[in-house]
Amino acid sequence: MLGQMMDKPLLISNLITYAAKFHGDRDIISVETDASITKTNWANINERAKKLASALGKLGLKAGDRCATIAWNNHRHLEVYFGTAGGEYVCHTINPRLSAEQLGYVINHANDQILFIDKTFLPIAVGLKDHMPNVKQVILMGAKDEEALAALPNIMFYEDLIASGDADYQWPDFDENTASSLCYTSGTTGHPKGVLYSHRSTLLHSYCVVMPDSLSLSALDNIIPVVPMFHVNAWGLPYAAAMTGAQLTLPGPGLDGASLLKMINEYQVTIAAGVPTLWQGLLAALRETGAKIPSLDRTIIGGTACPISLIKAFKDDYDVDILHAWGMTETSPVGLVNKPLIKHLNQSKDEQEAMAVKQGRPPFGIDIRICGDDGSKLAHDGAVQGELQVNGYWVVKDYFNIEADTTLAGDGWFATGDVATIDGDGFVNITDRAKDVIKSGGEWISSIDLENLAIGHDEILDAAVIGAKHIKWDERPVLLVVLAEGSSLSEAEILADYVGQVPKFWIPDRVLFVEALPHGGTGKLLKNKLRDDYGDCLL
Q1: What pTM was computed for the model?
Q2: Is residue 459 among the annotated active site residues?
């Protein structure tokens, strides 16, 4: 017997319809590429997204066609999110920091028909114009611009496109399993791989994001997604904000600490989200200016492990909680969130800090396990390490446009490539990427733990640990550091800090001082490049 309830498809257009109807006057603040500020609201976003969907149909797009974006976090990008998906097209967000070869690859692999660009990225479109034969139209996200017209004579302008749309356009109904958006992995090795999300998976992921034991969003919040909208749909925050009617403050290209500090205080932001390097920049701006951030309640950190020094600085000095989370393009991305259980509330400060650096536990909708090299399931005892595998309602089944049934393990789990422990309560501590873990004399050494200890030093701005080749031990850890300006910190002083904090054999064999470390477009360290450059330094 079937239940007798209404059967309504879970569609992204329902999110923007709800936001416009019940939170229509809630502000959307947008920093444009020229640093000007646009103030709009959910009702206007909905109206313009509908016009966009209508106009795309007039350009000849068919259901399922991909529309690429190379753009910052701003109101037009938000409109494209909802206008493409709501019109039964697919929003393909592209990381502009990919190499030219990778940019061309993902545009052609996705068979993109439309390319939306912010003016900042006009040179990318000009450089690729002869290498993306399937793109029918490039659209500059703004008003008519003579400079852009001279560079690309056939370019269209977003505001002209919106003006051509139908004001009375109605969102269509269709199957909730229809594709909604497409994101490619960062592609640090080999070609990036596409993950094609559905309306259903995106709605379920949005429900997860807003839950109290997840990121805990409400209509009272003002969210600044510093994580780019070109990276895993800004962690799903644009959709979750619409689901709750929360305000969005979109920072545009200004992601430096001083710009973020100004935005947070001027618009009374309550929640921020981004990778640790961005919050280190904000912390530096706070310390330099002596400013406070009284409206900010918490910041969500993912993308890479967050050092305890950063967590403590924000909590102790600014009363801002850092919420550690973990995910991947393949998990939409939220897979783990570090929310305590009731048993943890009376822990000592040291115990709470030890918990805070873990990636957290899975929300409803995600299941987790760790496995050995032979595929055997390992104990969840907080000690045994294995590869983290996930299963759930918003986890990839197959990568886009590759041979089917080649992505998951035989029993339907996705292998993340992360090495982790899981304790009896489901809390995960990721110790390394499988490709980055250092194997020295048959023992594993966590590069993440060594990096976090280094970054905790006041005179170290950035740090990375790689496994360098070693004649006797196969691999040994080497620490690369970027020192603060004016620092005279020595190798011996840095290595001395590890004594008593890690096993003796974990202590790096060398410290190399560098001017900068390579980070990808999502803030992750490019350790493959570091291994290429420094992997033989101990031979």
Answers
A1: 0.89
A2: no
